[in-house]
Amino acid sequence: MFSHIVIGVGDFERALAFYTPLAAVLGIELRFCDKSRPWAAWQSAPGPRPLLIIGAPYDGRPHAAGNGQMVAFLAASRETVDRAHAVALGHGGHSEGAPGLRPEYHEHYYGAYFRDPDGNKLCVACHARPA
User: Fold this and answer.
1) What contacts 24+ positions apart, CB below 8 Å, involve 107-113?
2) How confident is the model at residue 66 (pLDDT cuts 50, 70, 90)?
3) pLDDT tens readout for residues 9-51
4) In the chain, how many domains are there?
5) pTM of the prediction?
6) Suppose 126 and one of 19, 75, 89, 99 were both cysteines; which one would form an S-S bond, judging by CB atoms 3.0 to 4.6 Å apart?
7) Can you give the pLDDT at residue 47?
8) Residue 31's domain is classified under what CATH number?
């Protein structure tokens, strides 16, 4: 469905330090990193799409986080959701909802919500039944 998702950032080095360990927990591999531009992308397996890209806004204006916008990552297990939330908070993120069941979405929805250091809202969700 998606070719790529771009998340604007204001401080590339800080964002890279946040997204690199988060991507590792989620099993998403780095495809490229160009600090001179600055931008970096991770790709889903088996790839090559979709891509998750972080970078300075293309138009050169300052980054501004949107209200009502969110990127949600798929996790294979509830434990991955828990680890991703902890890694995000440990690397400058802020919690927007601790890991847990969200039965208002569906019976097995287990998710966590947080903001990256630039204020972008993210989610990690597992839709599988518990192991």
Assistant:
1) 110/78, 110/81, 111/72, 111/81, 112/81, 112/82, 112/84, 112/85, 113/70
2) confident
3) 999 999 999 999 999 999 999 999 999 999 999 998 887 889 9
4) 1
5) 0.93
6) 75
7) 77
8) 3.10.180.10
Per the prediction, the chain carries an average pLDDT of: 95
| 75: helix, strand or coil | coil
Nearest to 52 by CA among 16, 28, 74: 28
Report if residue 61 sits inside a domain. no
pLDDT of residue 67: 87
Closest CA to 27 of 51, 8, 44: 44
Task: Classify residue 109: in a domain, yes or no.
Answer: yes
Q: List the domain range (segments joined by +) for residue 103.
A: 4-55+69-126
Q: On the CB side of 49, how many CA atoms lie within 13 Å of its CA?
A: 6
CA angle, corner 85, sides to 81 and 86, nearest 5?
120
Does residue 63 lie in a domain region?
A: no
How many helices (H) and strands (E) the chain has is answered by 2, 8
At residue 20, the pLDDT reads: 98
131 falls within a domain = no
